[in-house]
Amino acid sequence: MPQQRRTLGFLAAALASCFWGCGFFFGKIALEEMNVGAMVFYRFFFAVVALVPLLGLHRPQLNAREWRTLLLASFLGVPLQFLLQFKGLSLTTVSHASLMVGTMPVILALGAVFFAHERLDRVGWAALVLSTMGAALIALGGREHSVAGGPSLEGDLLVVVSLAIALFWILLNKQLMQRHSAIVITAWGLLAGLVMLALVVPPLYGLPPVHGISWKAWAALAASGLLCTATTTLLWNWGMTQVPASQAGVLLNMEPLIGSLLGVLILKEHLGAVAWMGGAMILTAAVTLTMRPQVAPLHEDPAMI
């Protein structure tokens, strides 16, 4: 593989991870003016609008069973995962939620062991334990120092639960992409998820507001959809065609780093010493796991937060 294309592949994966890291930041801005359901709906609305050209150029050739799989994956990955995830964000801080995303490689590793029947050696299991301890430190530390608008145990745990649901979204998409292109599965899967949100959000949260929303919130929603959903997916998909996922997967760990820094530096959130220690443990475990070939195949699907 030419070195130039390899370098561009790593750059694409790195940019995708950085943009994903901005998702909670933009979401928190929008949540100041609307509820969770409306925020998630508009995020995917802007993402699908950006993907309309791809929807027209890449028509799906799925059979009935594959359509059922795609719809199940879309339900798990869009309305269920994101409504839970951003409900958690509404109850905690951007920095705490972002650090919790660092548990995703651990969840992927467990999925590889229990669903893909891959083996994990002692170092891998040690990394899982380290990451679990780190998440516990962050969550419990937030509970001990909780203030109005600050971190909470409930919010942190909801984010982790949403990531566990994302595992099944990833596994189902991975299965579909064995026969169909990643662009087809991603674009049509997100469209299906948007339709489901249109059906689920109004009865649960009311109609998404159109008037009375500031330009700041609209800009955050547009950036969340265009950058943190549509662009990231396309960048990650293309990057995976240029470099091995086992090497690029470690770049996913930029997501919790970028998210937590945005929360601390821009939103002026506070991370105590315990949370910093927990975050370091999570990132150390994530780097260890993503650098190991035993769990690398699960990173081939880009459908992350």
Kindly describe this structure.
With 305 residues, this protein is mainly alpha-helical. The chain has one domain (9-300). It is 75% helix and 0% strand. Helix 5 (94-101) packs antiparallel against helix 12 (254-265). The radius of gyration is 18 Å and the shape is globular. Mean pLDDT is 78; it is low at 142-147 and 294-305.
What layout of secondary structure does this protein have?
Elements: H1 3-21, H2 23-31, H3 36-57, H4 64-91, H5 94-101, H6 104-114, H7 122-144, H8 153-176, H9 182-205, H10 215-240, H11 245-248, H12 254-265, H13 273-290
Give a quick rundown of the structure.
By secondary structure, the chain is mainly alpha-helical. It has helices spanning 3-21, 23-31, 36-57, 64-91, 94-101, 104-114, 122-144, 153-176, 182-205, 215-240, 245-248, 254-265, 273-290. The model is unreliable at 142-147 and 294-305 (pLDDT under 50).
- What is the end-to-end distance? 30 Å
Helix content: over 70%
Instruction: Output the helix-strand order.
Output: HHHHHHHHHHHHH
Number of domains: 1
Count of helical stretches: 13
| Approximate shape | globular
> What fraction strand?
under 5%
Mean pLDDT: 78
| Total E-strand runs | 0
> What about the largest sheet?
none
Uncertain spans: 142-147, 294-305
C-alpha Rg (nearest Å): 18 Å
Q: How would you classify the helix and strand content by structural class?
A: mainly alpha
Looking at this protein, list some descriptive labels.
305 residues; mainly alpha; 13 helices; 75% helix; 0% strand; globular; disordered C terminus
